[in-house]
Amino acid sequence: MKQSRMYIPTLKQTPSDAEAISHQLMLRAGYIRQVAAGAYTFLPLAWSVIRKIEAKMRKEMENVDAVEMRMPAILPADLWKESGRYETYGDNLFKFKDRHDREFILGPTHEETFTSVVKENLNSYKKLPIVLYQMQAKYRDEDRPRNGLLRGREFYMKDAYSFTANKEQLDVIFNKMEVAYRNIFDAFGLNYRVIIGDAGAMGGTDSKEFSAIAGIGEDTIAYSDASDYSANLEMAASKIEKLPAEEHKQIEEVDTPNVHTIDALSQLLDVNSSRIMKAVAYMADEKPVLVMIRGDYQVNDIKLKNILGADFLNEATAEEVTDVFHSVPGFISPKGMDTTDITVIYDSSLEGLDNFVLGTNKADSHFINANFEDLGDEKPEFKDVRTVKEGEQSPDGKGTIKFTRGIEIGHIFKLGTKFSNALGANFLDENGKSQPIIMGSYGIGISRLLSAIIEQHNDENGIVWPVNLAPYQVHVVPIKYKDDVQKKLSDEIVDLLKNEGYDVLLDDRNERAGVKFADSDLIGMPIRITVGKKAADSIVELKLRKTGETIEVNKDELINSVKILLKNQE
């Protein structure tokens, strides 16, 4: 392909509103252009990379017997109302009505649609299991789209769905999908972690996230420095050092005027914050929940939401603390509170805690030397609802917890019967009994993957593509294409390479050599072949984009040299 016929609108300057390296480089190198906030055009170079990503995905999906199809992006709102997600997705849904006043959404994901389409035909255990997938644009009305393709309103995705008759079939497919996803990400040279993830609005039980390590990543990954343990911070666990046991003292009420923070309370009473039992009030699906946690920890809302099985969770307002919990903001406590209609949860950080500080449900006072028997429950059930801290012991007992940032590039879920129950997708089992289909969901963000790869494969001069993803493996750059000798040799080299099956870009533009070289480094092809002063002797320069190494070769040695050099970069 001649570069003069390609559309590669490179930029010399970095756009001021682009923060992520991948966003900056894709704009500068002419891979994408923004059409609206959170909506981007994939220009020819980007689309070439995406097609190669798709090819690898199709191969891996075929290996797990997944079948490709295509769903519409315009979905009836009634389907999402049946599943309950029309409300839980909230403002993230693009909602509209047609001319007949019927409600629709633009699909952010397709669990409901796939379930609805297959439920009439997958009516017997003999037809299960089956896995279907598609590659398609998705839509979410993000409040603040940012970082280019990493957080957009329209994004490109591969989503697959499994339909099985039992848990064993689901487990087999789930495990095969994990292997397939590892193969995909390994092939693209990504540094990533497979972590315990939160299913969120997807529902279900088990989920695993695939997170590419990157400083711009929105997710915090907690991992062990001595084992394979990794989890999204929202789901991470750890072992904490228990405080030394103390002989129980007599509970006592003390004045704590104008104290509204844990730090202020700790300072006033001269007690470590780890000896304070903090209360945090929530409303979960409009029902009151009181969470008790050590003063030196924070409640993890995602863990709490999952434990409660709640669709909506919000910290209680001051008015709700007064009117629903019948307490005082900042001094709330389960002691003396009528908890008949209130769910009280004790975090595991409190286990074994003695002589702690506790609110009194009265303004400007706290209890000191409180113990669980003072609460009427010497052995409460403890649950993990806290956010882990860096430096704590890994939950598997191996190493300590470290934090890093990551970009979620894939997610696999065991959905169970959430959607089949909601939409009436049943089958007859071996005994002729009607059972709900058991489902799984498996997604890869293709457009986000493009960004993640560039975040990890770049240098100060531009993008450095892995060989199997580069839009072109070889970039032929004649210094002066108008020179007959250079033009002839350049054209011969292009033909030789194309005959060997390589994708080749020929820079036939009438530009200065410095401009051509800068653009070549920016767009990031693995090998650049410079045709210059030695063209009359059929000698050219090969430069490896990844290392900057250069060698001179004769045209007769070119193909073997390219093969070896590309092979060494795989």
From TrEMBL:
EC number: 6.1.1.15
GO cellular component, one term: cytosol
Record PROSITE patterns: AA_TRNA_LIGASE_II
Free-text note on domains in this protein's UniProt record: Consists of three domains: the N-terminal catalytic domain, the editing domain and the C-terminal anticodon-binding domain.
Keyword Ligase recorded: yes
Described purpose of this protein according to its UniProt entry: Catalyzes the attachment of proline to tRNA(Pro) in a two-step reaction: proline is first activated by ATP to form Pro-AMP and then transferred to the acceptor end of tRNA(Pro). As ProRS can inadvertently accommodate and process non-cognate amino acids such as alanine and cysteine, to avoid such errors it has two additional distinct editing activities against alanine. One activity is designated as 'pretransfer' editing and involves the tRNA(Pro)-independent hydrolysis of activated Ala-AMP.
Domain Aminoacyl-transfer RNA synthetases class-II family profile intervals: 33-466
Pfam families, per database record: HGTP_anticodon, tRNA-synt_2b, tRNA_edit
Catalytic activity: tRNA(Pro) + L-proline + ATP = L-prolyl-tRNA(Pro) + AMP + diphosphate
Signal peptide boundaries: none
Family to which the UniProt record says this protein belongs: Belongs to the class-II aminoacyl-tRNA synthetase family. ProS type 1 subfamily.
Principal subcellular localisation of the protein: cytoplasm
Species classification: Bacteria, Bacillati, Bacillota, Bacilli, Lactobacillales
Enzyme class, spelled out: ligase
MF terms (GO), sorted A to Z: aminoacyl-tRNA deacylase activity; ATP binding; catalytic activity, acting on a protein; proline-tRNA ligase activity; transferase activity
Record-linked InterPro entries: aa-tRNA-synt_IIb, aa-tRNA-synth_II, aa-tRNA-synth_II/BPL/LPL, Anticodon-bd, Anticodon-bd_dom_sf, Pro-tRNA-ligase_IIa, Pro-tRNA-synth_IIa_bac-type, Pro-tRNA-Synthase_IIa_type1
Keyword terms, alphabetized: Aminoacyl-tRNA synthetase, ATP-binding, Cytoplasm, Ligase, Nucleotide-binding, Protein biosynthesis
Key word Transport present: no
A GO BP entry: prolyl-tRNA aminoacylation
Native source organism of the sequence: Companilactobacillus ginsenosidimutans
Compartment(s) where it occurs, according to its Swiss-Prot or TrEMBL record: Cytoplasm
Subunit field text: Homodimer.
PANTHER family the UniProt entry points to: MITOCHONDRIAL RIBOSOME PROTEIN L39/PROLYL-TRNA LIGASE FAMILY MEMBER, PROLINE--TRNA LIGASE
Protein name: Proline--tRNA ligase
